[in-house]
Predict the structure.
Amino acid sequence: MLRRIVVVGASLAGLRATETLRDRGFDGELTLIGDEPHRPYDRPPLSKQVLQGTWEPEQTFFRRKDGYDALALDMRLGVRATSVDLRARRVILADGTFADYDRLIVATGARVRNLPGMAPRVGLLALRGLDDAIALRRELMNASHVAIVGAGFIGLEVAASCRARGLQVTVIESLPVPLSPALGSTFCEMVAAMHRDHGVYLRTGVSVTDVFGESRVAGVVLSDGSRIDTDVVVVGIGVTPNTEWLEGSGLTLENGIVCNGCGEAAPGVYAAGDVARVANRWHGDSPRIEHWTNAVEQGVHAAENALAGPASSTSFSSVPYFWSDQYDRKIQFVGRARPHDEMVIVDGSLADRRLTALYRCGNSVVACLAVNQPRALIKYKKLIAACVPWEAALTATAAS
Amino acid sequence: MKVVVDLGACDLHGLCVEAAPEVFEIGDDGVLHVLIETPPDGLRAKVDRAVRECPTGAISIEE
């Protein structure tokens, strides 16, 4: 019988796991452990509404209306889990306390990667958590020029928010185009042009070799020898899964916690969200996925299987989905594209920055990209989930 | 239960349509429509899922 379930990680995946456990009738002890002092909050608004100043940080908190009473959680915030003893079924915390479990769900997420070899200093920031967003917003209030290292989605959203604040913005990207070449170089070039049209100085094909300034940041040096004077540097070059606390536990850790299709990393131990590598039937492998919806789906899935037990567990099957809001454009992507997949625009155009594109791998449609065309994305997601052949997807296009 | 959608917050991600197609639909007008405002209890799990999966927290349930 299940009496105690412990969830480590108090962000989206962990929260959704606890909610699902209660929804499904689990009435035993439920512990939620988080290393940040904050109650669970939503990350997507951090780079947009919070940075732009249209939301106060409190508006990102989940369950602002419902509160936490109904979940009856033993919520331990501001304390880090430092290890787990799988045999004793016990999580050890940094303050010397522990939490015993019958089932464990690990959702410890990921943290930002720092620029290698750069000493910390005032004005050199990253954006991952709520405190990061508050600190960055404070810096932006007194800044006139911001340099952003990394033209991934987070870097570009920060760039758009900084432009909305009227700041001068330079984005530095070591690849020849922003975002990922797998999305298609023509689309990446469209995004580059959009940012340039909004006044962003986009430097591609160069990397940051040094950050200069005494007590605080004064600028960066690039690999082509040029120097950019700036008040603030924001680093967005990716994340690392938080698995160090599990080293030596017996769990398999390879760029995340390796799980089977049921989200199980060891008997009674499940993982979900950015830290997890759950075997995904749709994918055919076990990617680590950093998307918002993935955290929800795996949090729910882990909770359901933790209650069901191995004999009644379901396997995970999901088509990855993410979105990004930049200026007045909503970029949505569903599926998985790789660098050599063919991208075909089936509606709209790059020139209008309003389009729907499908990605072809062999004879299958494997992904869909939509810019300001949300309805198209919903339609194609169904086809991608069903692995329909390429011709059938195009027929569906013609019929719509 | 009564399904309430904050159309000001809705961002047309369409995840609710996927979770509970009986209850949610995005119309030709490009607006989310609630097809059944008071769904039967049999749809509870699906509606719960729609609430949990909405990226903007636009859907709520009033008992």
In short: Chain B has a mean pLDDT of 94.
